[in-house]
Design brief:
The protein is α/β, with parallel strands linked by helices. It has a single domain, classed as Isochorismatase-like (Rossmann fold). 33% of the residues lie in helices and 19% in strands. The chain is built from six helices and seven strands, in the order βααββαβαββαβα. The longest helix has 15 residues. It is globular. InterPro entries: Isochorismatase-like_dom (IPR000868), Isochorismatase-like_hydrls (IPR050272), Isochorismatase-like_sf (IPR036380). Keywords: Hydrolase. It comes from Aquibium carbonis.
Length: 186
């Protein structure tokens, strides 16, 4: 197989998870920030595509998620804003707004990546057992190779994160050390 074109998907790097006091913040979430910065910098240096996939909901409209979760990530709200230095920058970066866990569900992400000739995705962000797993599963279902760098994702449910990483590696793609994922983006 020839060298696949690789893109970086940063999932939910928003204030809700990373700003202390926000509704989805949890102890240890900050451990993924430096690994994600390393991935992002490798992608920026090489010109690889960076997709910022972030959850965003419409104000003043009902959303099916509210039947299971409290109202969150409303367009324009502080919890939905990109965290610190993780806002998109440069011409090789784009945003995909998602309303469910997967960055693929009801978005044009698969179409966009296919049009760009991408076949492999390095997926990083939060939470391993929810949005990362859903995105990896849908990446695989859409014909992309999902790669999850172990150090660039975590969860407030470590046992579920480990089970999800095992399933991703066994059934969908690969779970690799950070250095290997950086090399894929370089």
């Amino acid at each position: 197989m020839q060298n696949p074109r690789t893109a970086l998907i940063l999932v939910d790097v928003i204030n809700s998870f990373f700003e202390p006091g926000q509704p989805n913040h949890y102890p240890g979430v900050e451990d993924v920030l430096e690994p994600m910065r390393a991935l992002r910098e490798a992608a920026r240096r090489s010109g690889a595509i960076v997709v910022h996939a972030a959850e965003r909901h419409r104000p003043d409209f009902d959303d099916f998620e509210w039947r299971k979760l409290p109202v969150h990530h409303i367009d324009g709200a502080n919890d939905a804003a990109f965290f610190a230095d993780f806002a998109p920058q440069g011409r090789n970066e784009t945003v995909v707004w998602k309303r469910r866990f997967s960055a693929f569900f009801a978005t044009d992400l698969a179409l966009f990546l296919t049009e760009q000739g991408v076949s492999r995705l390095v997926i990083a962000g939060v939470k391993t057992n929810v949005c990362i797993r859903a995105t990896a599963q849908d990446a695989f279902a859409n014909g992309f190779e999902p790669v999850v760098p172990r150090e660039a994702t975590n969860s407030n449910r470590p046992h579920l994160a480990e089970a999800s990483l095992e399933d991703i590696h066994r059934y969908m793609g690969r779970v690799v050390p950070l250095a290997e994922a950086v090399d894929m983006l370089s």
